[in-house]
Design brief:
The chain is of the alpha/beta class and 810 residues long. It contains 28 helices and 28 strands. It has five domains: 52 residues, no CATH class; 175 residues, Spore Coat Polysaccharide Biosynthesis Protein SpsA, Chain A (Alpha-Beta Complex); 156 residues, no CATH class; 120 residues, Rossmann fold (3-Layer(aba) Sandwich), CATH 3.40.50; 150 residues, Rossmann fold (3-Layer(aba) Sandwich). InterPro entries: Galactosyl_T_C (IPR027791), Glyco_trans_2-like (IPR001173), Nucleotide-diphossugar_trans (IPR029044).
C-alpha cells in the first residue's frame, strides 16, 4: 500500500498539512509511536470530520500502521465452556476483551464496568473475582450490569491477593483479538479506542512518569493484541506480592520486539482510593524496628520482586501457568479452585529470604551509604531488628561490619565519647565513673574511642564495664555532634531521634562533663520494668505461657524476658527452635542483679510449694515481675488473639524450616494430632509421670488420652474422606506404632515427618515444632483434647475451616 502524499492534494489548513507530513514521515521511518502521537493531535484538532479529505488521509495512515478498523462493532461472541481444567485458549475472536480482577473492591468495579461496556467494540468483559468476601457476580446483577458480554471467573479459597495469577487466568479465558488490561478502578472514556490506535508490533501502556497528578496508578494499564501477550506468558507468576509486576511485563514486551506507546491520558481515568488493598499483606500497627518498617515500604517490596525476577528462570511462553480446576462453568459465571499442591513454579523460601536481604541492603544503603554492603548478614539482621530506618547511619553500618562493640550490646542509640590523644588516664577513670553512676536508658550504648588504650580501659572499668571501648576507626556519619555538657545532658540528648551522638572531649572539658545536672534538668529515663516468663513443661505449654506473657508485656509497656531452662520436659534451647531477638536467659541467676533482687514472683505450677495457679498478675505496681508458668497468665491483656501474635510472628530456625519444607502438603489436607502417650499404662517417661501434676490433673489426662486412641481418629478421617473434599491427611503422633497403622490404612494419602526419635531431646523437639507448623497449615484439624500440642497448632494457624477435638466432637 502506498503512503498518502498530502502534497499532491494540499489541505486547506497549513498546520494540519504539516502534521500529516510529519506523520507520513514517521510511518516511512518505522516510528509507530511518533506516528500515533501525531495522529492523536490531528484527531484532537477538530478538523478531521467524517467524509473530509483529512479523515481519509488519517484512515489510510492507520491502515498502513495495521490499526484495526473500529468503526463498526465487532460481532458478539458465542457462549463457550472452559472445560474441566482451566485451559489456555490459543485463538481469539474479533473485537476487544477487557480483563479486570478484584478482591473486595467491588465498589470501584461497579463504577468502571459501565464505561467498558459503553464501547461497542468490546465483545466481552472478563472479571476475575479473587475470592472476594462478598462474591462479585451477585453485586453485578444487583447493579443491573449483568449480561452476555460480562463473564465472572470466581476463584475460591485464596487467602491473599496474587495479581499475577489472577490476571493470567483472565488472559487465558479472554477470547478477543485484542486485550485491555484494566484494574477495577480504571474507567475508559467513550473515545478510548479512537484516541489509542494500536499499530501492529506495538503495545499501549500507562506511565506514572507522564501521568497527571493523582493518576500515577494508570501505570498498570495496558492494551495489546492477545497473541502478543500470550507469546510472553502474561504476568510473571514467580511474582506473587506487590511490586515490579508492571515493570517486569513491560520489559518482556519490549524484549519480544513490541514497541511501547504511552496511553492517551485523557482517555482513561483512575478512581482515587487508599492503598490498603494495593498493599495487602504488608501488615498493620506500629513499626518499632526497621524490618517491620520495610515490610510496609513500597520501594523495598518492589525491589524484592525485582531481585526475584532477575534470579528465577526467565518467564516466557515456555513456563506453565498455575493449574486451576473448573468447579462450575456457565456462560456468565465460572467457579475455579487453584491446585496449590501442584504448582509448576515455586520460589523456595531460601531464595525469597535472599531477595528480602538484598532488597533490604539496597534500601538501607540509601540512609547509610555503601557501607551497608559491608555488613555480614547476621549482623545486618540484628541491626534492623534493633533500630528504625531513620536511626541507622554509616556509624552503625561500620560497627556492624567490624563486629565489635557496641554491636553486641544491642542498643538503639549510641553515645560515642572521643577522648583527645593526651586525655589523662585518671581523668578518664573519673569520667567513666560519672557515666557509670548515672541512670541509663535501656536502649543506650556508651562507647569510648580515641585517647590512649590505658585511658579507654580506665573509662570502661569505671563504668563497671557498662561502656565499651572501640578499638577501630569508624565514621561519625549519622551521629549528631554534641558540645561538652554534664553527663546527664549528654545521655538525654543522645536518646532523641536518630542513631545517636558523639562528643569530643579534651582534658579541659573534664569539669564541664563531670559536673552534675543543672537544677530543673529533665530526668534521664531508667530501665523499663521487666516481665520475666519462666516457661515450664513441654513445648506447647512453654509457648502458651510465652505468648500470654508477651501479650501482657506489650499491653503494659514492660520489657519481656524469657527464662527458658532446658530440662527433661523440653531439652532444648529457644534458639534451637526460633531465630529471635528476644532477651533469653537459661537461669534466674543470669538476670541483672537489680532485676533479680527486686522481683515480684508468681508461681502457677500447682504441685510446687507455695504455688497458686491463676493468681492475678498485678502490673500496676512499679516492680519487676517473674511468672513461673506452663499456662496463660491471668491478666486482662491475655486473650487468644493477643497471645498468638508473638507465636505467629516468631521465625522458625533454619533446621525447623528445612523439616517443614520436606513435606509436600496438598491443599485442603486434614491435620490429625493423635496424643496417646501419657495415658494409663503409657506414662512411664519422666515427663509424663504423676509427679508433674496434681492427682486431679493426672486423672484428667488419663481420661482424655483414652478418648484420643487412633481408632477414633481413623473413623472420623474415613468419614471426611468419603465426603470427597479432602483427599490427604497429615499426621503428628507420639508413638511409632501409630505411624505404622496410619500408613497401612491410608498409604499414599498420608503425609508425615519420618523420624527415629520419640523423646524430648533438642532434635525431637525440632520435629515437634515442625509437626505443629504443618498441622497449622491444614484446613481441618482433628486434635487431642487436653493436649497443649493440639492447642499449639491452633495458636499457630490462621485459616482453619474447622477444629474437632477427640472425645467431644468425635
Amino acid at each position: 500500500m502506498n503512503l498518502p502524499d498530502p502534497a499532491r492534494a494540499p489541505l486547506p489548513d497549513p498546520g494540519l498539512s504539516r502534521l500529516f507530513d510529519e506523520a507520513v514521515q514517521a510511518v516511512r521511518l518505522d516510528q509507530p509511536a511518533l506516528a500515533v502521537q501525531l495522529l492523536r493531535r490531528i484527531g484532537r484538532s477538530g478538523k478531521c470530520m467524517a467524509g473530509s479529505q483529512a479523515a481519509a488521509l488519517r484512515a489510510q495512515l492507520l491502515q498502513r500502521l495495521g490499526v484495526p478498523d473500529d468503526m463498526t462493532p465487532a460481532p458478539p461472541l458465542a457462549p463457550e465452556a472452559l472445560g474441566a481444567m482451566m485451559p489456555t485458549r490459543q485463538t481469539g475472536g474479533a473485537g476487544v476483551s477487557v480483563v479486570s480482577c478484584c478482591m473486595n473492591r467491588t465498589e470501584n468495579l461497579l463504577k468502571a464496568l459501565p464505561t467498558w461496556l459503553a464501547l461497542p467494540q468490546v465483545t466481552e468483559v472478563v472479571i476475575v473475582d479473587w475470592n472476594s468476601t462478598e462474591p462479585v457476580a451477585p453485586a453485578i446483577t444487583e447493579a443491573g450490569l449483568a449480561g452476555p458480554r460480562v463473564r465472572v471467573l470466581r476463584v475460591e479459597d485464596e487467602p491473599r491477593w496474587i495479581l499475577s495469577l489472577a490476571f493470567n487466568i483472565g488472559f487465558r479465558a479472554a477470547r478477543g483479538e485484542r486485550i485491555v488490561k484494566a484494574d477495577a478502578d480504571i474507567t475508559l472514556k467513550p473515545d478510548f479506542l479512537a484516541r489509542n490506535p494500536l499499530p501492529k508490533g506495538c503495545f499501549i501502556a500507562g506511565d506514572w512518569r507522564e501521568a497527571a497528578p493523582g493518576q500515577e496508578h494508570i501505570n498498570g494499564f495496558f492494551y495489546l493484541r492477545r497473541a502478543d501477550l500470550l507469546a510472553i506468558g502474561g504476568f510473571n507468576e514467580y511474582i506473587t506480592t506487590y511490586g515490579w509486576d508492571d515493570d517486569d511485563i513491560y520489559a518482556r514486551m519490549a524484549g519480544s520486539g513490541l514497541r511501547r506507546i504511552g496511553v492517551d491520558g485523557e482517555s482513561i481515568y483512575h478512581i482515587p482510593h487508599d492503598d490498603a488493598q494495593r498493599m495487602a499483606g504488608a501488615g498493620t500497627g506500629g513499626a518499632d524496628h526497621a524490618w517491620a518498617e520495610l515490610k510496609r515500604d513500597t520501594a523495598y517490596r518492589i525491589r524484592v520482586n525485582r531481585w526475584l525476577a532477575f534470579v528465577m528462570p526467565p518467564w516466557n511462553a515456555d513456563r506453565q501457568f498455575a493449574p486451576f480446576d473448573v468447579l462450575e462453568d456457565s456462560p456468565t459465571l465460572v467457579r475455579l479452585r487453584r491446585r496449590a499442591h501442584a504448582m509448576p513454579h515455586l520460589v523456595h523460601e531460601d531464595i525469597r529470604t535472599d531477595a528480602e536481604h538484598y532488597a533490604a541492603l539496597e534500601r538501607v544503603s540509601w540512609v547509610c551509604g555503601p557501607l551497608a554492603y559491608h555488613m555480614p548478614r547476621m549482623r545486618f539482621n540484628a541491626l534492623l531488628q534493633r533500630k528504625r530506618l531513620a536511626e541507622i547511619g554509616a556509624f552503625d553500618a561500620a560497627v556492624a561490619a567490624a563486629g565489635g562493640p557496641p554491636l553486641e550490646r544491642g542498643r538503639r542509640h549510641t553515645l560515642l565519647v572521643e577522648l583527645a590523644p593526651d586525655f589523662p588516664v585518671e581523668r578518664a577513670r573519673d569520667l567513666g565513673a560519672a557515666f557509670g553512676h548515672g541512670a541509663w536508658p535501656e536502649d543506650l550504648a556508651i562507647c569510648v574511642n580515641g585517647g590512649s588504650k590505658p585511658a579507654r580501659e580506665a573509662f570502661v572499668d569505671a563504668t563497671a564495664c557498662r561502656a565499651a571501648s572501640v578499638e577501630y576507626w569508624i565514621p561519625y556519619d549519622g551521629l549528631r555532634r554534641l558540645e561538652p555538657a554534664p553527663t546527664a545532658e549528654l545521655v538525654a540528648a543522645t536518646c532523641g531521634n536518630g542513631s545517636g551522638a558523639f562528643v569530643q572531649l579534651r582534658s579541659d572539658h573534664f569539669d564541664t562533663v563531670h559536673a552534675g545536672p543543672p537544677p530543673g534538668a529533665p530526668a534521664v529515663q531508667v530501665r523499663r520494668r521487666q516481665l520475666v516468663i519462666d516457661t515450664q513443661h513441654g513445648l506447647g505449654n512453654r509457648l502458651r505461657a510465652l505468648g500470654s506473657a508477651a501479650a501482657v508485656a506489650e499491653a503494659t509497656g514492660r520489657e519481656l524476658v524469657v527464662l527458658w531452662t532446658p530440662d527433661h520436659h523440653c531439652d532444648c534451647r529457644l534458639a534451637d527452635l526460633f531465630e529471635t531477638t528476644l532477651p533469653v536467659v537459661e537461669h534466674a541467676d543470669d538476670l541483672p542483679g537489680d532485676v533479680r533482687d527486686a522481683l515480684r514472683r508468681y508461681n502457677y505450677m500447682e504441685i510446687e510449694p507455695g504455688a497458686q495457679k491463676d493468681e492475678p498478675v498485678d502490673t500496676d505496681r512499679d516492680e519487676h515481675i517473674l511468672v513461673r508458668s506452663a499456662f496463660v497468665l491471668r491478666h486482662p491483656a491475655s486473650h487468644w488473639e493477643a497471645e498468638n501474635r508473638l507465636l505467629q510472628a516468631l521465625r522458625p530456625s533454619e533446621a525447623v524450616r528445612a523439616l517443614v519444607d520436606s513435606v509436600e502438603l496438598p491443599q485442603h489436607s486434614i491435620g490429625a494430632h493423635v496424643r496417646m502417650e501419657a495415658g494409663a499404662g503409657l506414662d512411664q517417661n519422666s515427663w509424663d509421670s504423676a509427679e508433674n501434676w496434681s492427682a486431679e490433673s493426672h486423672a484428667a489426662i488419663h481420661h482424655w488420652r483414652a478418648k484420643s486412641h487412633y481408632s477414633a481418629f481413623i473413623r472420623r478421617i474415613d468419614a471426611l474422606l468419603a465426603e470427597g473434599r479432602h483427599q490427604h491427611l497429615f499426621l503428628a503422633t507420639d508413638l511409632p506404632e501409630n505411624y505404622r497403622v496410619f500408613q497401612q490404612v491410608y498409604g499414599e494419602r498420608l503425609r508425615f515427618l519420618p523420624r527415629t526419635l520419640y523423646d524430648r531431646s533438642a532434635a525431637q523437639i525440632r520435629y515437634a515444632l515442625a509437626d505443629a507448623l504443618l498441622l497449622s497449615r491444614c484446613t481441618w484439624l482433628l486434635g487431642s483434647t487436653w493436649s497443649s500440642f493440639s492447642e499449639l497448632a491452633m495458636r499457630l494457624a490462621t485459616g482453619f475451616e474447622k477444629v474437632e477435638m477427640s472425645g467431644t466432637d468425635f
